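Feature request, filed as a ticket because there's no other form

It would be nice if the structure record came with a short human-readable summary line next to the tokens. Right now we just get the raw output. Example of a typical job, pasted below so the devs can see what we mean:
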Amino acid sequence: MDGILGVEEVLFFVPNVQGAKQWFIDLLGENPYFDNENYCAFYLANSTVGIHPSDDKVSSGVAGQVTYWRVSDIKESIKHFKSHDCSLFRGPIFGVDKVWICQLIDPFGNVWGLVEK
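Raw output as currently delivered:
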């Protein structure tokens, strides 16, 4: 896929964007660069994290695809997510590809993948 340049945005669906915004600010440690009643966007590791209202087409929660964020220390990252009311969903495990991975569920039911390489 010669035309794929990287991850542009990971969109998280929540029941109420403005109600969830403060949680994302606390977790990510920064304010959104775009803030609207129905969409907020944050910068994270050269990508955008967007929050959007869940609806009939896309609900909050685990739905199949998982974006993995590269972290320098998976144990410390897990502690950080847990301090923001996330819970472990899978792992941490040492994968067959020789990396540590885990998945956490945020308070809105969305999954966050972490990988330590």
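Something like this underneath would help us a lot:
The two ends are 23 Å apart (CA to CA).
Residues 46 and 104 are 21 Å apart (CA to CA).
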